[in-house]
# Entry
Amino acid sequence: MSKMKGPGIFLAQFASEESPFNNLTNIAQWAAGLGYKGLQIPSWESSLIDLPLAAESQDYCDELIGTVAQHGLAITELSTHLQGQLVAVNPAYDDLFDGFAPAEVHGDNSARTAWAVQQLNYAAQASARLGLTTHATFSGALLWHTMYPWPQRPAGLVEEGFKELGRRWTPILDSFDEAGVDLCYEIHPGEDLHDGVTFERFLEVTGNHRRANILYDPSHFLLQHLDYLSFIDIYHERIKAFHVKDAEFNVSGRSGVYGGYQGWLERPGRFRSLGDGQIDFSGIFSRLAQYHYEGWAVLEWECALKHPEDGAAEGAPFIERHIIRTTDKAFDDFAGSGADDALNRKILGI
# Structure
């Protein structure tokens, strides 16, 4: 039997002030009605979870578990994508990223970072109380503004940037280790961890920390023209979470992978609802089954065209039919001749 769990759904793109997306009870009922079995909860959405309270109160966490269980659901992971982004922000992006944090730390890079670190520590404790073993986040970025090497990067700049990233994240990883939870970084453009090489750099500066793992999202790899199937072959031991998200890259004579500052609808590379893009999900699910992936398959909807509720409705059956029920038999078992050391030696002529 397959050890992959699903389908799950990431609630970040759906939470709002409108019913049924305005609280955990309502959104759980909605998701269950579409066929989902798990919810990935964005920890910054106060209508869905009080993160500091979840960090300190087992009774509150038990209530959250009970709320989703009433609808036949489980919590797959908590997410701190927005807070994780703020663990490492180059000052060039201060104004843009202040919106991810409370007003009292706006304009103060150090205070905002300290707030983000505390949020991650809350998430480690809350995840443990909820009985979760994985957590989803972003790495943040100190180097992203130098991604394209023009002007030429000074010698040692990348190494120093990753040393600082490691210095900031290692204590957080230690907190997650104490909680027994894997911290899964979504490998994503805009983050210093945006491909395999940058993830390897991060492992090096964190001492190959056992809690430094990967949230695998193939859409970000397709848009970078990275081989997302080979990525699984290389990093499968570190892949502990999975966003099922489609994308397409339509080659153009006017714009390329950087998108020409265009909106998502006009870009050559854009995200799509499941089955509407170019990603080989049969190949992905086969690779993950081959390597005995035991985590959740979670829909993340970010389509530039389709309505989110339609994308969500189509997503559950799409994931369900792609999860592979793995076999415990070999197709040619019927022709087996059994185990016999003497026969084997005879066949070998020894």
The longest helix spans residues 157-179. Strands lie at 5-10, 38-42, 74-80, 134-137, 182-186, 212-216, 239-244, 246-249, 269-272, 296-299. The chain has one domain: 5-348.
